[in-house]
Amino acid sequence: MAFKLDTVIAKRTHKTIYKEGEFVIKVFDETFPKSDILNEALNQARVEETGLPIPKIHDVMKLDDGRWAIVQDYIAGPTLQELMDKNPDKTDEYLDRFVDIQLNMHGKKAPLLNKLKDKMDRKINETTLDATTRYELHMRLGGMPKHTKLCHGDFNPSNIIVGDDGVDYIIDWSHATQGNASADAARTYLLFKLAGKDDLAESYMKKFCQKSDTARQYVDKWLPIVAASQSVKGKPEEREFLLRWANVVDFE
C-alpha cells in the first residue's frame, strides 16, 4: 500500500495519525522503539480475536522515510469525550454507557496478552520511588488476586468512538494486558483525576463499583500500584501527581 499522508486527524507524543480513504495510518517517529510498535499491533490483533468492536489492523509497514506505521480501519463518528463535551447535560448517561462498555470488555479473554501483574512489577522497579516504598508496592501487588480479564490500560472516553453505524468502538490498544479489572478501573479513575475532573472521577468510581459489584476499598487498594506503574512514562507534571498517589504509607 502507498499513502499520501495528507490528512492529519490527530497528533500525539511521538506519533501522527492520518486518514486516507477507509484507513487510518498511525505513523511513529524515528525515536519510537520498533518493539513497542510491533507489540501494539500484536495486542490489537489479539483483541480482534475476542470479537469486541475495534478497528481491524490491515498492515504494519515501514514508510519510505524510515518511519514505521500501523494501518487500520477508519471508524467514522465522534468520540464519547466529544459527545460529553458537547452535551454536558447528558454526562451521567454517557458515563453509564462508558462503564457498560468497560465491563463488557472485562468479560472477554485474550490469553496470549502480557499479564498485567508482570508489567506492573517491572514498572514499579523503574520508578524513582525509594526501595522501601517499592518493596511495599511489590508486596501489595503480589497479594492481589490473579485474574485474566481483558484490560485496556488507558480506558477513557477519548478512546471510545461512537460509530455512525451505532456501534461503540474501543481504540488504542497499546497498553492492553490480561489481569484484574479493578486495576483497569483504578487507571481510569486516575486518568479523570489527572485531567482535573474530580467529580467525574468519583461518579465513575461509584458507577463502576455498583455495576460490577466491587467494593470501593478493593479498587482503592490498586491505586498506589497503578499510580506507580503509570508514573514511569508520564509527563513531569503527571509524574509528580502520580508519585503522591503511589506512596502507600501516605495513601493509607
UniProtKB/TrEMBL annotation:
Q: Name one Pfam family in it.
A: APH
PANTHER family assigned: AMINOGLYCOSIDE PHOSPHOTRANSFERASE DOMAIN-CONTAINING PROTEIN-RELATED (PTHR21310:SF40), AMINOGLYCOSIDE PHOSPHOTRANSFERASE-RELATED-RELATED (PTHR21310)
The protein's name: Phosphotransferase
Please report the organism this UniProt entry assigns to the protein: Candidatus Stercoripulliclostridium merdipullorum
Q: Which InterPro entries match?
A: AGP_Transferase, Aminoglycoside_PTrfase, Kinase-like_dom_sf
Annotated Aminoglycoside phosphotransferase domain residues: 19-209
